[in-house]
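Hi team, as promised in this morning's meeting, here are the two structures we talked about. I've kept the exact order from the run log so nobody has to guess. The first one is mostly here for context; it's the second one we should focus on when we meet again. Sequence first, then the predicted structure tokens.
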Amino acid sequence: MMSTLLDNRYRVTSVLGCGGFGETYMAEDTKMPSNRRCVIKQLRPIADNPQMYELLQQRFQREAAVLEALGEESRYIPKLYANFVEDGLFYLVQEWIDGLTLAEAVKQQGPWTEDAARTLMISILQTLTYVHSQGIIHRDIKPDNIILRAGEPVLIDFGAVKETLNITTVKGSAQQAHSIVIGTPGFMASEQAAGRPFFASDLYSLALTVIYALTAKYPQQIGTDPQSGEVLWQPQVSISPELKAVFTKALQFDPRDRYSSAQEMLKAMEVRRVDLAPMPKSQNLSNMQTLAVTPRSLGESPAQPIYTYQPIPSKRKALAPMIATVIIGVGIGAMVAMAVVISQRGDIASLWNRIFPSNKSAEKTAFYFLADSAFEDSAKANLRVEKLRSQGYTDAGVFWIPDYPNLGNSQFFQVYAKQYSNLENCRETLTEHSKLVDDAYCAFASPNPDDAVQRISVPTPSPTSTPTPTATATLQPKPKTSPEQFIKDYYNLINERQFERAWQNLTPTFQRDRAGGYQTFTGFWQTIDKVDVRGARIVEVKADSAIIDIDLTYQKSAAITPETLRMGLVWQESSGQWLINTTQRQ
């Protein structure tokens, strides 16, 4: 263990790994108030003369700049905090990602369901779409290089920098040596093993990584065809034909026969299927089109989704008889047209309920519940359920609102903190829970659309009376809040879980540009226990706009993560307050 500080700043606390390219350390940043944890990668350059070492150093700086740009633009890639050279060795200082690697998660929890594996692959493909658009090939996608942070997969350990560390001379000129191959045996495509990776090489590695999640087996354990060398994965998995087709194309021996890009593979994954037969029971999560990952085997039954107290019925399971009816009644052409409309609108459940209102309603039971929040994204809903259970709501769960039509047909997943036998029992818990969620309420959920809506909320306190101004009194304008105070008030709303009021502190333009809208906004903040404003510095302030830098720390369980944001504010005269118009990591 190192006893001195690296770069006179970073204190190494443990060794995370070592290999032919160098070592990886866990360290503390002694120049940050929080002693921020970080990961430091020590890289050993290979150069046979001083001129080559200088060239190598230039390449290292260039690749570090690429990593910095990638981390700044995507939260699914670790941020690069710093890079430096010390005693002839190169160092990268990166964000520490708190979570299990995919390999650790599968080892602890067992194989994943198809739906969990599918959402994993979609999320990684979205990250790769961005990475490849920057001309970068990851080169080492494998279970150990995917960390699940709050259910979301983060892609780590890019191999591009490693390749720059090997320089040889040929007739007095420098060239990159192809004798050192970047990647991991078993997960590497043949062209990458030969030192010639393509974008399609990453897609090959990703497919084998997702197959590992489905089987808990590494490629070497699955076996290969002795004639072609292809991995014999097909007998190991029981998945839909559509996903098998995606794997088959991504794992072609010739990269020209694979998907040409991550974007193309992503489109193949996201095309909604029209099933001509009922889906197997093991696929009861087919309605979960998410970006987060839901591993199997953490609940009461391996076939159920993690954190889901009440199974979410598939919105597509009744599609087969509907299609059969359409074929008989209006012909194949009309069936295809209807399938296209359904695919575009995504409201299969509501369409089915309108055609056959009595759709298996007898299978569901009416109940009273304490409503906590609602999400378009089922994975976000499941994460919220996990949070509630950690807070003592052991019976927390989630259901698909259209399955209880007396609540309406809103296409959301409703998270509840608890179920009750009657509304009055729910009232006892509502007052306390509303301190955490200001818009919590108690309600009655019924599969019978004719049942009345029953709902109670915490009464809103009446505003205190104010003296009526006299005829001679002059109304004074409300003092203009400083940008610093506005920021503190904004994050106070977040800490008080008043997300609706916090959302109204964003300009309409910023609200529209945020991916996922209000549900994603609340979904993120629900994963944070507390946010502290450590400092605020005015960069520029005008009559109707301001730019301010804010030093924040996010607390999640025992982990504290610092961040500096630059916010652009605009003054809204009609409401007499600042609004957040832009944010950018610093």
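And here is the second protein, the one for discussion:
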Amino acid sequence: MAKSRRDNNGNDASPKAKISRENISQALSLFKYLKPYRIKFVWALLFIALSAFTTSLFPLFLGKMIDAAVPGTTIPVAGNTGGLGLDLKNIHWSVNTTLLFIFLQLGAQTIFSFMRVYLLTEIGEKGLARMRQDVYSKLLSMPMSFYAEKRVGELSNRISSDLSQIQDAISFTFAEFLRAVFTLIIGLFFIFWVSTKLALIMLAVVPVVAVLAVVFGSRIRKMSGKAQDQLAESGTIVQETFQGIAIVKAFTNEYYEIARYAKSIYAVVQTAITNARYRGAFIAFMIFSVFGGIAFVMWNGINMVQAGELKIGLLVMFVIFSVLVGTTFAGFADMFSQLQKTLGATQSIREILRSDGEPVALNDIMVEPAFTLHGNVTFDHIAFSYPSRKDVQVLKDISLTANNGEQIALVGPSGAGKSTITSLLLRFYKPDSGTIFFDGKPAAAFPLSQLRKQMALVPQDIILFGGTIKENIAYGKPGATDAEIIAAAEKANAHLFISSFPEKYDTVVGEHGMKLSGGQRQRVAIARAILKNPSILILDEATSSLDSESEQLVQEALENLMKGRTSFVIAHRLSTIRNADKIMVIDKGVIAESGTHNELMNRNGLYRRLNEMQFDISELT
């Protein structure tokens, strides 16, 4: 059966849902992704039925081979009269002929099995590829409020584990379920055809054994899951310890970490030993029950053979069919569990697909002349609180104006609402009241993608994608030429350090750009923004964590970037925004004061106090 998927912490990542008509109906709605392949799907169903049928012929031919080797088996069985079944029971083939039939049956079964696996895998892979694309596209179109409430690991898990669970259901579980149903029906038909008396005896034993096997199996799976969770916890301890090894050694806590790890692994030992008791009891029970049941059925069958009521070949045929039916019946427990997980996965996926995303373009677009920005921005009495914290008003009454080409600096204490203003500018969120205007038009008059296409963001914590420097710069303008990329890097003061690398622009930056220094990452991000050539630029404390040399290079690059475009600069180091056209001091969700650097320094206000505090600190250091 398909294995249960576990997340990075070892927990079962496959959600389960109750099997109900509503949940099954919702799951079947996802079969629309298989609609283009419906003809192949019908053929796959046919091959599943043929595979089950040909598998069931093997015990029949094997019984006939044994009958061919036993003298007197061609004599009609007493008490059986008339009908097609009598002819089939008493038909006689030689050993060689029966062997030929067996190989023909195995050949046909091989072809049918191959075709069902191949077709369902192809259908599942192609259908799930379309579903993955739709889910990923939907997630990318979700608003920032969605990501504020969801964990990245959870979303990644939905794309990986949930969709893989659905894929397994289509490619494997669904096929095995249908095959098991066909096998069960055919097997029951044959055992009743061979002997109704033995069939009733067998059916009195098999369900009891199967139910007890399900109970034992469920308990063992839970204990195994618990052991995996505990083992994952011990792995987490190791990971945390090695990541913080400097702190461990600095606090001389090696003994504490060893004790913590030992406690965790011995908990795994206890769970494993308990699980071993259940598994041992289960194996012993199954050995006794299965072989005891077979022995009891054989005993009754042999008595019937001795009484002339049954042929020895039919008895062997019956036993094999009984084992086939029993194992198939027991397998439904795992299939039931997989079905629950699949229903849970489809609920998660449908929840995403039915969500309302932002009206963003999911294809590359060009800025239309009607929506071209000139860089004039107005905030008119903006109030805002985040959807997850409606009781906390971040912005209370913000009104400001930025004209084309002006540099607007936003300063103030942490939590004052500076970054929130830029988030509203990018329309990550909508204001609770008030209106934002671009070139005199309400923000709502611009298609979202058209608006963001003309803005660029250089954040404090630079995010570079795993790839080359060239790919990261070209992210600002996919399809840019090498000359355009180099020109952007030169303006960002990045070309010199890039050229010093052996692989130059093809240098791989590593995960999150970790192979580059902070200043180098900043300049690559600036080059990315320069290449985009935005009308409105947003700089969110772009130099706050750099050393003096890097800060100077980055500041020069930023000045090149800000030329001729409207810029909103969130500044931590106030020395970097002294030449700003307007400085807005944000405090407790309102604009406490505004003006140029000189104007604000001539007042005894918050800006002056912040400057004096930074000056005093710089003197001390």
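Starting points for discussion:
Residues 1-13, 73-86, 617-621 have pLDDT under 50 and may be disordered.
The first strand starts at residue 377 and ends at 384.
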